[in-house]
Amino acid sequence: MTAVTDFLLNRSSEPRLEAPAPDRETLNTAFACAARAPDHALLRPWRYLVVEGEGLEALGELFASTCANNSDEQEIEKLRRAPLRAPMVIVGIASPRPHPRVPEVEQVMSAAAGMSFLGLALQDAGYGVMWRTGAVAYHSAVHKGLGLDDHEQVIGFLYTGSVSAAKPAVLRPGVEEFVRHWP
Predict the structure, then answer these.
(1) Which of 160, 11, 164, 19 is closest to 91 using CA atoms?
(2) What letter does residue 159 receive in the DSSP assignment?
(3) What pLDDT is attached to residue 48?
(4) Is the model's pLDDT at 177 over the cut of 90?
C-alpha cells in the first residue's frame, strides 16, 4: 500500500480540539486541496467561511437562536457552547449553479467531497478535525445568519485545531459487510 492508503486507513474524527488552529499557510494549502474535488463542468459549487476568535461566540449565539421558545436553558447553552469545542470552525457551503448537464445533487456531492479533502489535508498537516452537522446545519436562521443565498446549503461545520487528547480507536466494518459484486 501507499502512504496515502495508510493515511486513509488511519484517519479518524477528533472531538477534543484545542489551540493552536491551522495557520493561514496551512489553511490555504488545505483549501487548494479542497478545490481538487471532482467537479463536473468546473462549476466550483462550493465556498467556505472560516470562523475563529470572537466569531466562535457569535456562531454559538446563532446556533442558540434556533431553539424554540419553549426550549430549556440547558439545550440553549449546549448550542451556544458548541463552536467553542475547537479554536476554528470552517463552514462548508454548497453553492450549486444551474447547468444543463450537471444536476444540483452532483454539485452538492462535489462540495461534500471538497469538505472531505479539506479535512484530510488538515489532518495530514497534523491537525485534528471533526465534521459536524446537526439540526443547525439545516436551519433557515443559521443560513440567513451566515449570509447564504437561497440556493445554498451548509454541507457541514469542520471543527479543527490541535488534538488535545487521543480517543480510542473506532471499530470499522469489514469490506464484506458493505460490498457486493453485481450481477
Answers:
(1) 160
(2) E
(3) 98
(4) yes
d(CA 34, CA 112): 9
Question: Is residue 67 within 8 Å of residue 134, measured between CB atoms?
Answer: no
DSSP states of 12-79 as a string? -----EESPPPPHHHHHHHHHHHTTS--GGG---EEEEEEETHHHHHHHHHHHTTS-TT--HHHHHHH
Tell me the torsion sign for CA atoms 86, 119, 20, 27.
Answer: negative
What is the distance between the alpha carbons of residues 165 and 81, in angstroms, rounded to a whole number? 19
Residues with Cβ within 8 Å of 104's Cβ and at least 6 positions away in sequence, in order, are 96
For the stretch 56-91, pLDDT in tens is 999 999 999 999 877 899 999 999 999 999 999 999
